[in-house]
Amino acid sequence: MAVLLGVDTGGTYTDAVLLDADETHVLASAKSLTTRPDLALGIGRAIDAVMASAGVRPQDVAMVSLSTTLATNALVEGQGGRIALVFIGFDPVELTRAGLAEALRGDPVIWLSGGHSHAGSAMAPLDLELLRVQVAALGPEMTGFAVAAHFATRNPAHEIAARDMIRSMTGKPVTCSHELSQALGGPKRALTAVLNARLIGLIAGLIAACEAHLAQIGVTARLMVVRGDGALISAALARERPIETILSGPAASIAGASWLTGEKDALVSDIGGTTTDVCLLRNGRPSIDPQGARVGPYRTMVEAVAMRTTGLGGDSEVHLIEGLDGAIRLGPRRLMPVALLAQDHGPLVHRALDQALASEVPQDGAGRFVLPLWQGAPPLGLGAREAAVAGRLTQGPLRMADAVCSRVEAPALARLVARGFAMIAGVTPSDASHVLGRSDTWDREAAEKALILFSRKRSGRGERIAAGAALMAQAIIDQLTAQTVDCLLEAAFAEDGRDWGVAPEALARHPLSTAGLDRHRGVVQTTLGLGVPVIGLGASAPVYYGAVGDRLGARMVLPAHAGVANAIGAVVGQVAMQANGTVTSPGPGAYVAHLPDGPERFAESGSAMDALEVALTLDARARALAAGVEEVRLSVIRDVTEVDIEGQPMFIEARLRVTAQGRPRIAIG
Where do the structural domains in the chain lie, given as residue ranges? Predict the structure, then answer.
């Protein structure tokens, strides 16, 4: 029998699920820990387990679809490779817009003359010789390049020329901004290209790991990847445009939530190890964010579901907030739970915790560990202090105090973590749930020791912040509940449709909102709740979300298979390839169709739009066929902007979008 295999790789777990070819029921599901740096191990264990559980042969697998939160997590946590931005025809002030400078994080910028006007004509010659010199001067630590040129959406010639030269010189991946979006807004396009270039190595590694294991066990079915809007794309396209996989996991979870519950209107909240993703389901479908996907601090030009992603998950870092009360805060960085680290490195963890507990006042870094995320020799291109820290980690995990020997090395460790070379282990909500008996997957004794140690931290009054592990654990769980409620309220206020006059983030934390949740009864009586149910997804949703529903006065839906909803959503989507283009009018009787190969002039607007539609249709259809669609359905949207001048319409601009979609080919290979 033909079956469909869905795989979702998250920051903590990799899930696998098998559905029948008619997508009517789940045959089996399995989970495995996501394994860094070798993702193939975790993927392989999940796939092997689900196939063994269902008694499925490799030749029975008709399609494989992959979703992931790794790209989302990397952006939230500020991780990714070191890249260079080639910025063509822009003024220096443009670097300060759209969060571009922050996204670069100090990575180099190559400034070149060139770029085009709104009409697509060159503003200045492209200085390829300067590009050659500057690329040659960059070190081997560069993992990729982003190229953004002024009005490249009107004429991509300079981006293409720069891309071809860089590829011929370095062999490294190059992302052009016009390949990712046809929208105007140079800095925002450049930001999207920068993030894409930074993610290429991460997503390429994930796809390669999945493909390698499928080949090893004899599965020959086509591999698809979930895009951020829930559509499926080929693995080859996902390698080139990994930015399109941000919110891939959340988009798959929305499809999975709808499939599992049949709910038409609900808030879907998916808690993972690193993030909580909230989206409104209306009439059984999520809305698409018209401003582009927002992840953490970045607003991209990638079309994706209207999702609010917050750095809050079961493995979020627990912070002590400076102040008199000893309050705590969770996230946004993900740590490895101490209980999980102790599974593989029990002697190291318990010995370090026992030593730290011998002191009534814990030292800085006590109860924290550092583990390397590379195999073999340390990574290349490290500074002296980074290399010193990496050298100590070569033999495996260490106590924080043994990995970082002085305060000046702390920033070096932070850079290793940001680049994905190392990870910190410490107290998380997952440890708290083990202490309270809500989870029993990992080493409960190690979690209890770590929380006793954390509870000995002192508030501004000089008092311990909690009286033991159990009270500390409950405080952490209560904080996770409070922050989850904030996430859901922000999404609810944003999607309500009423103009509140205040930002959703401020409304969610407003004293009146708090009073409403408290059901305050005084001279003023307040009540606040949600008008739709909440669908809780994620393996840990049953552990945490009961209290969330109580606080919000909402019906909480926790479906069977909620822990593998992303993997289910990965195989129930369709391929949808889109091609976008613009027709402009530089003057009376002149119309320019901005075709994929460059601008072409016409004497009539209709002729220009027809030519553009033909080019876009060929492009979208070819990409859909390449992705495995047998029966392509085409749809065309023409958005024409005109103004009325003395009773006569005057053409300003036309935007065309052609969508080619259909189900991927289901066939036994």
Answer: 82-200, 316-476, 575-662
